[in-house]
Write a structure and sequence with these properties.
By secondary structure, the chain is an alpha/beta fold. The protein contains twelve helices and eight strands. It folds into two domains: 77 residues, no CATH class; 191 residues, Alpha/Beta hydrolase fold, catalytic domain (Rossmann fold). It has an eight-stranded mixed sheet, with helices on both faces. Helix 2 packs antiparallel against helix 3. The radius of gyration is 18 Å and the shape is globular.
Length: 288
């Protein structure tokens, strides 16, 4: 896990919270583990910037109950007569962050579905996880699908690839700035807190016991090996949150993928870069 511990974490922790968690480990490893996990599954909500307002206001807004785990999420629907495309935002984001993709898809009369994952944006709650996101994808496909394609950013890449492996009937998909290992996310989170590997391993064991799964069953580097549909893997070389080597690894493991590397866009601006957006959308159109 050495490479992962050197990476900047995808789940960021504010300074004051870092101090509280760090102090807890001076009392006991068990307490530190509980406190760390409390914050690990709680995303931060950020104010929606003006650039996303047009998409938010134009969309049909639907309150949708996810039957798999009994939570409500905010869905945004832009109607069209051609391909149905699902857009998935990353941790601490919002569905409308992918407005550039929605704009490009709407030009081609595609139907666009996106949503605020639990505890994000306008969806209620204060905590969530990648398992819940996978269930959201499956339930939304039953209600609004079948989807022809999907585009996922960052943490959602894990959930999308797992959903495809589990039978989500897409014709093509793209993942942007995603990681390759779920355990790696835990190690990068612990890096911020200056935790030992022992406490990180306690966190992982605790989560695996709670959910009754092995975390790496949600690792993209595992699931991508069993996926046959065309995949476009996109990453910026200057991404500070999920280094682009994650995507080169996924490309090497994939059965049917293309790799596009950009530079100078980082983890979030890549979602608004016209050339990158057009490249991704055209890839989806090539596999209708």
């Amino acid at each position: 896990m050495k490479k992962n511990r050197k990476q900047r974490p995808a789940v960021r922790v504010p300074t004051l919270i870092r101090l509280v968690i760090w102090l807890s480990q001076l009392i006991s490893s068990a307490l530190a583990t509980k406190v760390a996990l409390y914050f690990f599954f709680r995303p931060h909500r950020f104010k929606t910037p003006n650039r996303e307002h047009q998409m938010r206001d134009a969309a049909e807004q639907i309150k949708f109950s996810v039957s798999s785990f009994d939570k409500e999420i905010q869905v945004y629907r832009l109607k069209g007569d051609k391909q149905k495309v699902l857009l998935l935002h990353g941790w601490s984001g919002r569905g409308t962050q992918l407005f550039s993709f929605a704009d490009e898809l709407q030009k081609e009369n595609c139907e666009v579905i996106t949503f605020d994952m639990p505890a994000h944006g306008q969806s209620p709650g204060n905590k969530t996880n990648v398992l819940e996101l996978t269930y959201c994808i499956q339930d939304l496909n039953q209600k609004f699908g079948p989807f022809d394609a999907a585009i996922a950013h960052s943490m959602s890449g894990f959930a999308l690839l797992r959903a495809i492996k589990d039978g989500l009937p897409l014709k093509s998909a793209a993942i942007i700035g995603s990681g390759d290992s779920i355990k790696g996310v835990f190690y990068r989170f612990s890096q911020q807190l200056h935790f030992s590997d022992k406490i990180t391993e306690r966190m992982i064991t605790s989560v695996e016991n709670k959910f009754g799964i092995k975390l790496e069953t949600y690792a993209s580097r595992i699931n991508i090996k069993d996926i046959d549909i065309p995949l476009l893997i996109v990453h910026d070389k200057d991404d500070k949150e999920a280094p682009y080597e994650c995507s080169t690894t996924l490309h090497d493991l994939a059965r049917n993928s293309q790799l596009k590397l950009t530079s100078g866009l980082g983890h979030h601006r890549i979602l608004r870069d016209p050339k990158t957006v057009q490249h991704i959308v055209q890839f989806l159109f090539q596999h209708p």
